[in-house]
């Protein structure tokens, strides 16, 4: 009985210890579980706070960016206004200077026209005839004090016949053109003007509407008017005869005695150097060594 009581007491104590240990494990597990749940909640709360902070930061950055763009746009607009004002002022200044130069040129032109010697001036009270406006390759001009209007077709030098046809083919707004036939009193002034203002010398001679007709040289349109072989307007040694005909044998020998008149506006080979007081020369009509000098012969414009 004593042994039984001892064993009973032992087992009862042992079971009680086991229960105590189990209770301790259980409490520990519960405590750890609660700690884990609490820690997880804290982490979640921290992440939420971080996300909220990031969102707030994004909002502030976006607001600052918008403000920066607005300020930048405002400053650019101000700069453009200032720059536009400066450019406008510079343009106005340049236009003003250009107008002043035009005014000065007009004054100089008027003074020069007043100083032209009387032999070059036509004392008529009739106003000058109108010239066609410059169009493409055709730049029209008249010599001071004269009404007649001229143009030099400078695409390339031509034989006389081709030059004559070229003038006829140029129809400028109702104006009819032909090879020039200047009167004796205008030939010198015409040559001087062309040499000084229109051509650069060299071989730049210009065909006239005049050719050899038997022993005389006659203008084609005004065939009652001619050039005497002893005229003071011929250059020294002109009009050339057999000397020049020999030069045309290589081209068309059947036309070697057909000579046409040119205005001596070139400087190469000039017998009287830079002297335009003897402006006429003659050479074979088939020689392509001169430009067409055309003049306006009629105005067929509709009024």
Automatic annotation (TrEMBL):
Q: Where is the C-type lectin domain?
A: 145-268
Which domain of life does this protein belong to?
Answer: Eukaryota
Question: Under what name is this protein listed?
Answer: C-type lectin domain-containing protein
Its source organism is: Meganyctiphanes norvegica
């Amino acid at each position: 009985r004593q042994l039984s009581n001892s064993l009973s007491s032992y087992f009862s104590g042992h079971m009680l210890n086991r229960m105590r240990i189990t209770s301790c494990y259980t409490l520990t597990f519960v405590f750890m579980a609660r700690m884990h749940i609490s820690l997880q909640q804290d982490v979640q709360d921290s992440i939420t706070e971080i996300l909220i902070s990031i969102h707030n930061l994004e909002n502030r950055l976006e607001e600052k960016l918008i403000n920066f763009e607005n300020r930048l746009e405002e400053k650019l607009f101000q700069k453009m206004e200032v720059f536009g004002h400066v450019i406008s002022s510079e343009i106005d200044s340049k236009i003003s200077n250009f107008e002043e130069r035009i005014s000065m040129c007009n004054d100089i032109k008027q003074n020069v026209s007043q100083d032209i010697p009387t032999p070059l001036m036509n004392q008529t009270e009739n106003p000058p005839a109108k010239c066609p406006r410059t169009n493409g390759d055709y730049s029209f001009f008249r010599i001071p004090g004269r009404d007649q209007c001229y143009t030099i077709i400078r695409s390339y030098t031509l034989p006389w016949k081709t030059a004559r046809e070229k003038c006829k083919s140029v129809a400028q707004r109702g104006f009819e053109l032909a090879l020039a036939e200047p009167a004796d009193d205008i030939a010198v002034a015409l040559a001087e003007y062309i040499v000084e203002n229109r051509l650069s010398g060299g071989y730049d001679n210009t065909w006239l509407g005049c050719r050899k007709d038997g022993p005389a040289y006659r203008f084609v349109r005004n065939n009652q008017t001619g050039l005497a072989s002893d005229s003071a307007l011929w250059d020294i040694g002109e009009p050339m005869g057999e000397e020049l005909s020999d030069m045309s044998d290589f081209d068309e020998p059947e036309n070697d005695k057909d000579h046409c008149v040119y205005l001596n506006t070139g400087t190469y080979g000039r017998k009287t150097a830079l002297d335009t007081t003897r402006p006429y020369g003659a050479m074979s009509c088939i020689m392509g060594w001169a430009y067409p000098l055309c003049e306006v012969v009629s105005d067929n414009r509709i009024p």
